[in-house]
Design goal:
With 433 residues, the chain is an alpha/beta fold. The chain has two domains: 173 residues, Aspartate Aminotransferase, domain 1 (Alpha-Beta Complex), CATH 3.90.1150; 250 residues, Type I PLP-dependent aspartate aminotransferase-like (Major domain) (Aspartate Aminotransferase, domain 2), CATH 3.40.640.10. The chain contains 15 helices and 13 strands. The strands form three sheets. A seven-stranded mixed β-sheet has the order 4-10-9-8-7-5-6, with helices on both faces. A hairpin with a 2-residue loop joins strand 1 and strand 2. The longest helix is centred in the last third of the chain and has 24 residues. Bound molecules: pyridoxal-5'-phosphate (PLP). Pyridoxal-5'-phosphate binds next to helix 4. It comes from Candidatus Rhodoluna planktonica. It holds the Pfam family Aminotran_3. This is Glutamate-1-semialdehyde 2,1-aminomutase. InterPro entries: 4pyrrol_synth_GluAld_NH2Trfase (IPR004639), Aminotrans_3 (IPR005814), Aminotrans_3_PPA_site (IPR049704), PyrdxlP-dep_Trfase (IPR015424), PyrdxlP-dep_Trfase_major (IPR015421), PyrdxlP-dep_Trfase_small (IPR015422). GO terms for molecular function: glutamate-1-semialdehyde 2,1-aminomutase activity; pyridoxal phosphate binding; transaminase activity.
Length: 433
């Protein structure tokens, strides 16, 4: 067992002032028990906690650290930006360059607006969809997470799933009424809803491959069905690529998989990778819809720190290094790590379902394949907790929840892969016991 006294002391101190000691719920280790590690440094594929323990990182800040930690080229660009001031609250070249980069990678984004978090991007997308269609209803899928704005905090994934909350108190009945929740991968439910209420629906929002209830890939044609059904009834499709955008390919999920399937969402949301670890997110879409935003249109949206020069510098420097060869590396590392761990679990006789969505992956501790949130909830989270703690004690940091995706970075080495798989062999035996 590693020494974690420093983390324990800081966490006790944190809990006196910060609810649960954390700034975001999943970090508190509620579902796995134990004390969260207080990380103080990262370099490449590794991070170190305040007690000096070293970990190979398979969380990578839930995606943004796609190049690994403190990449020298990113650090240098961000340092340059910082020297010129942190913020002006005025337009700057950084946001223009980043908008151009996004539009180049995802041509369906004819216009881009920057915000500071994925939550904000999705909240704005929903407002925009309602304004564009003059309708109120939003359709989402159970287990998908789209940030914590009221309209979307109904049967959500991520922390809400980890804590087993159906909905959050504080969301009004009116808000909940305007959100219809369907089962993921259920074409029949989608078609029935549109037959009954199609004319009231402003938008369907979805993750292109849900990864906030663990990774649950869409069945063949499901995204296209969403797009086609919505469009047939004059509703919009919001594709929430906050997690997948520029992580699973140069053009995100849509850029990789939709080109051959022939579907296009009306509004995209991005976050995580586009800020390279700084608070930055965006929404994009057709000029016709996006120009409804103020000041060209009347849909209000704003932000003191939106398009911040330091954040856009981090995002740009990160995306500059996200080329085809990086995505090949990520795919390879994800396969090596994911399959290696799955083999270790199989050898130890731990029933599980290893699921992938591009280079995102996760393990459900249930023998059957998971296609939706109710099936995800059949898993044994106690087995996960044992597996998690054994990995952590051996210096492998993975998400502290059975309902989250795992993230590789381009900095992972062959040696790291070996170390992860060796740790997994031991952790799998612990999980089996
Ligand atoms: C992380 C995430 C969000 C929320 O982004 P924040 O920056 O945490 O507000 C929204 N949608 C998806 C798909 C996400 O993965």
């Amino acid at each position: 067992m590693s020494n974690t006294l420093g983390s324990e002391q800081w966490h006790e101190r944190a809990k006196k002032l910060i609810p649960g000691g954390v700034s975001s719920p999943v970090r508190a280790f509620t579902s796995v028990g134990g004390t969260p590690r207080y990380y103080v440094r990262g370099e490449g594929s590794k991070i170190w906690d305040i007690d000096g323990n070293e970990y190979v990182d398979l969380v990578n800040s839930w995606g943004p650290m796609i190049l690994g930690h403190a990449h020298p080229q990113v650090v240098s660009k961000v340092s340059q930006a910082v020297e010129n001031s942190f913020s002006f609250g005025a337009p700057g070249p950084g946001e223009v360059l980043l908008a151009e980069e996004i539009s180049l990678r995802v041509p369906a984004c004819e216009r881009v607006r920057f915000v500071s978090s994925g939550t904000e991007a999705v909240m704005t997308a929903v407002r925009l969809a309602r304004a564009a269609t003059h309708r109120n209803l939003i359709v989402k899928f159970a287990g998908c997470y789209h940030g914590h704005s009221d309209a979307l905090l109904v049967q959500a994934g991520s922390g809400i799933a980890t804590l087993g909350l159906p909905n959050s108190p504080g969301v009004t009945a009116g808000q909940a009424q305007d959100t219809v929740v369907l089962e993921y991968n259920n074409a029949l439910q989608l078609e029935e809803l549109f037959t009954e209420r199609g004319e009231q629906i402003a938008a369907v929002i979805t993750e292109p491959t849900p990864a906030n209830m663990g990774v649950v890939p869409p069945e063949q044609g499901f995204n296209k069905l969403i797009a086609d059904t919505a469009h047939k009834y004059g509703a919009l499709m919001i594709l929430d690529e906050v997690m997948t955008g520029f992580r699973v390919s140069k053009g995100g999920w849509w850029g990789k998989f939709a080109a051959t399937e022939d579907w296009t969402p009306d509004i995209f949301t991005f976050g995580k990778v586009i800020g390279g670890g700084m608070p930055l997110a965006a929404l994009g879409g057709s000029a016709k819809i996006m120009e409804l935003l103020a000041p060209t249109g009347s849909v209000y949206q704003a932000g003191t720190l939106s398009g911040n020069p330091v954040a856009t510098a981090a995002g740009l420097a990160t995306l500059e290094l996200c080329d085809e060869s990086l995505y090949d590396t990520l795919d390879l590392r994800a396969r090596q790590v994911g399959e290696g761990i799955s083999d270790a679990l199989t050898r130890a006789g731990v029933g599980h379902s290893y699921q992938t969505g591009g280079n995102l992956f996760s393990f459900f501790f249930t023998p059957n394949r998971v296609r939706n949130f109710s099936e995800a909830q059949l898993q044994n989270t106690e087995v996960f907790a044992k597996f998690f703690h054994s990995l952590l004690d051996q210096g492998v940091s993975v998400p502290p929840s059975a309902y989250e995706a795992w993230f590789v970075s381009g900095a992972i080495t062959d040696l790291d892969v070996e170390r992860i798989i060796e740790a997994a062999a031991i952790a799998a035996k612990v999980a089996a016991s």
